[in-house]
Amino acid sequence: MRKNWKRITGIVLAFILIIGQFMAGVSQTQAASKSPKLSRTSLTLTVGQSRKLSVSNAKNVKWTSSDKKVATVSKNGTVKAKKSGKTTITAKVSGKSLKCKVTVKKKQNNANNQTSGSRILVAYFSWSGTSERIAKDIIAQTGADSYRIERATPYSSDYSTVAYGEAKTEADTNARPAIKNAPKSIAQYDKIVLCYPIWWHTAPMTVGTFLEKYDFTGKTIYPVSQSASMDRSQFEESVTFVKNNAKNATVDDGLFSTNSSRITDYINQKVLEK
User: Fold this and answer.
1) pLDDT (tens digit, 9 = 90+) per residue, 161-204?
2) How many CB atoms lie within 10 A of CB 257?
3) In the chain, where are the structural domains located?
4) What fold does the segment set 120-272 form as a domain?
5) pLDDT: is 206 or 24 the higher one?
6) Residue closest to 127 by CA, chosen among 163, 177, 170
7) 37-105 has which CATH code?
8) What digits encode the pLDDT tens for the residues 204-248?
9) Distance CA 221, CA 138 (A)
10) Using CB atoms within 10 A of its CB, is residue 142 exposed (0-12), middle (13-18) or buried (19+)?
11) What is the DSSP letter of 143?
């Protein structure tokens, strides 16, 4: 009986020891998982490009740049490239210094002078200026090359003439008006961000002219659009228009918004992180 009792006691103690070791391991794992961690330890940008860094499991992060002439960093961790060179972004949190080495390269963002090495093109059509503002914000964020889609014969500056005359006639006839200074090639680009307003329930016909000029094999198009009515069904129709006119392209579902934060997040998640 005494032997059995000793055996049972030994088994219980061994079990308690095993459970104790297991719980200690869990605690160590949880502690490690909660340690502050910087989203990137190295980053390459071109002049004008921005990228947001973040620290997981941390609050009250203090950001600094070792060379603000090369790149600055905002209070929320957004790094903006200023000139070519190298700098180190430091995130100070909980007594620790987390570092990201940043290299900034020169760029020239004109699709007709392809020397920047960018793999991203922002092509945009704008009449009122809204799509141009959105496109320029994206260009600054990504360091992309750019091309403004313009009709060879400019549209009228009068809203009624454009909306109920020129644009409606082109939409009704599925026209392809001539455009100015289209890039001879888009071969160097993997990703094309396409910005445009909604005209008569779809993209302007000048956008169709641009798309039909090229073979988009191996390329992804990211539509970013807006309209006065913000009717999403019209945006979806415009995305179908893009798919039908961009030969062999992969076309993302895109973003229908004028909200700067939403556009920035979309570009970060879809264009820059892939």
Assistant:
1) 999 999 999 999 999 999 999 999 999 999 999 999 999 999 99
2) 17
3) 37-105, 120-272
4) Rossmann fold (3.40.50)
5) 206
6) 163
7) 2.60.40.1080
8) 999 999 999 999 999 999 999 999 888 999 999 999 999 999 999
9) 14
10) buried
11) T
Q: What is the pTM of this model?
A: 0.66
The residue count for the chain: 274
Say if residue 1's pLDDT is above 80: no
Q: What is the pLDDT of residue 29?
A: 45
Cα–Cα separations (whole angstroms), residue 177 to 91, 232, 242: 51, 26, 16
Residue 72 corresponds to which tokens in the numbers above? 């600055």
Please write down the HEC assignment for all residues of 181-244.
CCCCCCCCCCEEEEEEECECCECCHHHHHHHHCCECCCCEEEEEEECCCCCHHHHHHHHHHHHH
Q: Which residues contact 145 (CB under 8 A, 6 or more apart)?
A: 108, 109, 110, 111, 114, 116, 118, 120, 121, 122, 189
